[in-house]
Specification:
The complex is a heterodimer of chains A (about 300) and B (about 600). Chain A has helices at about 15-25, 70-75, 110-125, 155-165, 180, 205-215, 230-235, 260-280, 295-305, and strands at about 40-45, 55-60, 80-85, 85-90, 90-95, 130-135, 140-145, 185-195, 220-230, 240-245, 250-255, 285-290. Chain A is α/β, with parallel strands linked by helices and about 300 residues long. In chain A, the strands form 4 sheets. In chain A, strands 7-6-5-8-9-12 form a 6-stranded mixed sheet, with helices on both faces. A two-stranded antiparallel sheet of chain A has the order 1-4. In chain A, α3 runs antiparallel to α4. Chain B is α/β, with parallel strands linked by helices. In chain B, the strands form 8 sheets. In chain B, strands 17-16-18-19-25-24-23-21 form an 8-stranded mixed sheet, with helices on one face. In chain B, strands 6-5-4-7-8 form a 5-stranded mixed sheet, with helices on both faces. In chain B, α4 packs antiparallel against α5 (about 150-160) and α7 (about 325-330) packs across α9. Chain B is elongated, with a radius of gyration of 38 Å. The two termini of chain B are about 35 Å apart. The relative contact order of chain B is 0.13. The chains are: A alpha/beta (about 300), B alpha/beta (about 600). The interface between A and B is medium-sized, with 39 and 29 residues. β10 (about 240-245) of chain A pairs parallel with β2 of chain B, so a sheet runs across the interface.
Chain lengths: ~300, ~600
Amino acid sequence: MTPAFAVAGPHDVGLSPALLARLDRLTFRSRRPVVGSGAGQRISPRPGTSAEFSDYRTYVAGDDFRRVDWNAYARLDRLMLRLYLGEEDLSVHLFVDTSASMHWGEPAKDAAARSIAAALAYVGLSGFDRLGVAGFADRVTGLLRPQRGRQSCPRVWGTLRRLGSQSTGPASDFTTLLPVTRSLRPGITVILSDFLTPLGGEDRPATLGTALAALRGARQQVTLLQVLAPQELDPVVAGDVALTDVETGARVDVTVTPALIAAYRDALEEHTERLRALARAHQALYRRVRSDEPLDLVVVDVFRRIGLLT
Amino acid sequence: MTFLAPAAAAFGVIVPAIVALYFLKVRRTPVPVSSTLLWRSMIKDRQASVPWQRLRISWLLILQILAAIALVLALMRPAQSAPAPLAGHTIVLIDASATMQATDVHPSRFQEAKSQAAKLIGEVKAGDRMTLMVLDGNPRVVADSVGNQGPLRHALDTLQPGDGPADLQGALALAASVSGSGTDTQLVVLSDGITEPVVAPVALPFQVTFHAIGASGEDLAITALSAQPGDTGQQAFAHVQNTGRQRRSATVNLSVDGRLTNARTIALDGGAGQDLTFPLPPGAQQLHATLDPGDAFALDDSAWALARPARGYRVLLVSNGNVFLQQALSLVPGITVTSVSATASAYSAEPPADLYVFDQFTPPTLPAAPVLLVDPPSGAAGAMGNAFSPGPLEPAGPNPLLTGLTLSDVHVAAAHDLTKSGFGQPLITSPGGPVVELRQPPAAPARGVLIGFDLHESDLPLRTAFPVLIDRLTGWLLPQTTQATYHPGDEVGIAETGSDLGVIRPNGHLDALTAAQPLVFADTGTPGVYTVVRVSGGSRSTLSRFVVNAVPAPIAPVPQLTLAQGAGGPRAARRSQRTEWWPWAAAAALVLLTAEWAVFHRGL
């Protein structure tokens, strides 16, 4: 009997067993204490000690069996976990850009973004954090409410794989995240996108800035992961070409010369700097990754370096 | 400026074509990109949203148009006609006379002339003919080539300046003969302009271009040096002349027989001269005077002379009275003239003489000594022909005895026809025949001169040429009695006979004389003392000496060459040389295209 929801194995989202073994040693790092909704591994802001018993919770696959109350098991014939005050869980929200621009490049940016999100989901669920996933372009799609426990990984990965097939949508609009932010629990939000969108100062205000402000108001610790293809960092076009935007269909006629390529790189660096400044303004983390970077390098080294994982 | 291929201007349509390309929409390859956000922010390319767009000037457009214009110009072959540096036949006359040794032009005038000649040789191209001539006392052609610079350069490298004069008359005559018809011929004279005057017009069917060489005329020269008997013995007389404009001082050193015996310091204003007298020790033979310090022209900073022999020579004048001869002979230094009447008894009563002068008298047998016969009757001197009116006199050929003498103004009323005299070779001739003849051993036992007219029947004794001619004839007849001073390049007649004679030059080199008659030594290019010797076995016996001194002359360069009136002939039209400029236009196009490429890659 197949489940009602999509499930996927680790190989479906680009995770190798070796990488999973390395991810087991990582957890999300919150820069401030959070008030969770259940047992976790975070320090609660509420006064108390971690040795003070709080409650029981039914054991689910993936929980630390060392916390099983064997006395309760003897009485109730059910596996129960002992919970203590001061150990709270963390809410992690992953938003993956599913616009058409993410389905571009070699390797494609959306595949890299889904693999990164899958790895982050495994880290969160393995660390007893609540983790939700959603895709977005001009609207939010494939919203999966926060899940807990390692047994939720296939469901989360299945949702991510299904998001990949929708990466043909129109241009990204970060304001579509606004309704979702109102229902988010305080925690960590990771947005994976190429962020090739106006950042303000042009004919319309930056939708990203609006979204970041809303997320900050929802007490989210935001991390922006900009996924770019190698062809965006080092364009290989030359001569008289008509550049066509895969999202908007807008066409730009250029005669590509080495000088123009150099100017493009300058423009890309300027855009990146503005994105980094926008992140700083909203106390968000920022990191740019290449779609051809090894996944283990990105997740294990890069994310630890920027403080997303520990 | 002309265009050799004006039809190529049609290629100028490439310019509007380039502009049109900037108007027309470019066919572009569609390339999908994730976002045009970044491209839009810095695009400077010419976009064509409509088939025709408003032209916007750019450096690329300007450079492409300029390059196209340069290419079209190159195709049109622009050319400019200018007088060619060389004519079809260019005769280069290089002055190698003594004054060209002056060093007022570094390294010397002659080297400067060679340098300019080398540049002209470098202009020789296929089909160009060039003749290289030397202008000195003996003008000659040293190289002639058509389209080949090699022989000309080789001949030029071997040229050296001489110590003699520049015979411009002979050089022009030779150049005129070399030029042939003279069509498209040019004569280039590389000289300081110090030449012997052109005394007779020469038809020059070509243009003469004179390149004056030289910068200064400052020169201190010893113009004369001689030894004369004085009251207290032999004395040396020297004359030093400042031919420049600035005051100069120098020391005159006198060496006698190789030893410095006297020195005197003088100071001369510009143009001034000074006579100097030095006592000579007994037995002095060779004198050498030098100036210290030297100057830009070293050739006239020294002079040589021979002291007179201790004894004089006896000349017997047999005449019934000829005051002209008497006076002229008395002016010849170093001889004693004894006059007797023109009778056989008076002649035979006299002791032997070193030289006999017979005026309208001939002994039955001529003595075996040098003789000067003036209007002799037929007899021992040969058969005197009928009297005739000779007309204007002229030299029978180049001869140092007549150098500088003007004979054309001498009139002779009547002269004997010497054509059948059998006496010797003509020295002075006329339209009617020879009037003066010479003879030398071995044709005769001794040298002799025959004047075929009565001096009273001519105005020759009234001319300045007469005493000079008598002095030279006497010197030629008795070479050991004269100062025997010559100039570089002069031919020196050797009075001695035999096949074992030689001449020791100033550098000590012995030149053997050929047995050909007359014995003439012509290699007198170096100033100094020459010694005639007889070589027998390994020994040498000195017979006589003569001196070669530089011709004293100002060395101031002449800015304009003066040719004799009428020397110029019809001028052939100078050909023009066409210089094409298309390589420059092509090079400019290449530079512009390179700049366009650089601008394109810099994205300007």
